[in-house]
Amino acid sequence: MGSFIIEGRNSLEGIVDIGGSKNAALPVLASTVINGREYLLENVPDIEDVRDMLEILEIMGCTAQYDNGVALIDTRGLNTSQVPERLVKRIRSSIILMGAILQRTGNVEISYPGGCEIGLRPIDLHLKGLRKLGVEIHEKNGLLSCSVAEPTGCEIQLDYPSVGATENIMLFAVGIPGKSVIYNPAKEPEIVDLQNFLNKCGYCVNGAGTGSIVIEGKKLKNTDSVEYKIISDRIEAGTYLSAASSIKSKIYIRNIEKSHFKSIISIYEDAGCEIRETHGIIVIENKGRIRAIEKVTTQPYPGFPTDMQAQFMASMATADGITIIEETVFDSRYKHVPELQKMGANITTIGRVAVIEGVDRLYSAEVEAKDLRGGAALVIAALGAEGTTKINNVYHINRGYEKFLYKLQNLGVIITETNE
Ligand code: EPZ
């Protein structure tokens, strides 16, 4: 399972390069099956989730090579519409393959992804949208069997701006004749990146990032190879911002689009960190104890991201004052709280609300990573803690953070990884 061992009470200094976005790369990788052709993708993060998605493509008959941020994929060999269950269970976002494979083959079999550490995570909005576009969906023993005879473009109003549902509908609608419109779609930068990739492939999608996405569906004639560069990871950048705010620090964050994580930057400025941009590099300097933030509510983009909630909580654990967090996106995303409490954090949760009373300092302990972002929060807490902290189950962290150990060591953190 692996553990991190971290010496606390150091400072952070230096440069960190942000990798490609996990949540942009996964839907782009899934969408490569829509058309059998060759794809050269750059800035693809070197993380477990990407390896799992590539493995799924290979099991389904495609070829996929990966080296140092570049993925070379050929999907002409796709030879099945059944997504391997073992991997669907391991990587939830494989559900996005549904729309893509349906578009390619007219049918798909995929197991129901089920819930995960952070909540129930139903896919009712995915299914509702696909059904509106003409897909027939049968569910038996947790297996979804879908087929489509005469798909037609139409208008879809999403009850909630779900990222996954928006992506699944986009991947299916791009290839069906007629116009489709998604109202109240997710507006995340990753959705805009998916639109840009699909347009690079020759499709016609507009409006991503706004209140409606318009898709002029069509069958592609040209299947020449496609080259595309994935956006960088705003949540990875936000995680280093949180780390820098929790102890004395001066770090330079490179290879990230500032506008993608504005809501995170403004919160840490309010907390007292000095943040500026110079030649496209984000510089954050923290000279002492930060201030608590009265209230933060997680929301779909452009609101404060739920994927930053745990890291933000960890930095507020030693801030001066009381912070209230309301987690509105997922129903059980506080699994990191008991672990932070083991380190001396003063946190109370009532349903989806957490009250954090900042303490002078945290203390080392042996703690468990329970999920990806919760794991990153424990690393942030350990940076400022008195003593040596051991974080177990770090496979959760390696699923979504590229070269985490190496990048932290480069910033002066005394951190090692054990395989016990
Ligand atoms: C994406 O998950 C991200 N994952 C998540 O990041 C992120 O937390 C989430 O969007 C919200 O920003 C990827 O992009 C791979 P949703 P997704 O559909 O698509 C409910 C991380 O740490 N809902 O927007 O699963 C759902 O239960 C991960 O990198 C329905 O009720 O998120 C949740 O409460 C974790 N019915 C809320 O909407 C549906 O059909 C948001 O889900 C779909 C969603």
Fill in the keyword field for this structure:
420 residues, alpha+beta, four-stranded mixed beta sheet, 14 helices, globular, binds ligand EPZ
Describe this structure in words.
The protein has helices at 22-31, 48-59, 85-90, 97-105, 124-132, 163-173, 189-200, 234-246, 262-270, 309-316, 337-342, 372-384, 395-398, 404-410, and strands spanning 3-7, 12-17, 38-42, 63-67, 70-74, 107-111, 135-140, 143-148, 155-157, 178-183, 205-206, 212-217, 226-229, 249-254, 274-278, 281-286, 295-297, 322-326, 346-350, 353-357, 366-368, 388-392, 415-418. It is an alpha+beta fold. The strands form 6 sheets. A 4-stranded mixed beta sheet has the order 21-22-1-23. It binds ligand EPZ. The site of ligand EPZ has 25 residues, from α1, α5, α6 and α12.
Range of strand content: 25-35%
Q: Note the gap between the termini.
A: 7 Å
Shape: globular
How are the strands of the biggest sheet laid out side by side?
21-22-1-23
| Helical content (DSSP H or I, runs of 4+) | 25-40%
Instruction: Report the bound ligands by name, code or SMILES.
Output: ligand EPZ
User: Helix/strand-derived class?
Assistant: alpha+beta
Mean pLDDT: 96
Question: Secondary-structure map with pairings?
Answer:
Elements: E1 3-7, E2 12-17, H1 22-31, E3 38-42, H2 48-59, E4 63-67, E5 70-74, H3 85-90, H4 97-105, E6 107-111, H5 124-132, E7 135-140, E8 143-148, E9 155-157, H6 163-173, E10 178-183, H7 189-200, E11 205-206, E12 212-217, E13 226-229, H8 234-246, E14 249-254, H9 262-270, E15 274-278, E16 281-286, E17 295-297, H10 309-316, E18 322-326, H11 337-342, E19 346-350, E20 353-357, E21 366-368, H12 372-384, E22 388-392, H13 395-398, H14 404-410, E23 415-418
Parallel strand pairs: 2-14, 3-13, 9-10, 17-18, 21-22
Antiparallel strand pairs: 1-22, 1-23, 3-5, 4-5, 6-8, 7-8, 10-12, 11-12, 14-16, 15-16, 18-20, 19-20
The structure holds ligand EPZ.
Ligand EPZ binds at residues 22-23, 26, 93, 119-126, 160, 162-165, 186, 306-307, 329-330, 372-373, 400.
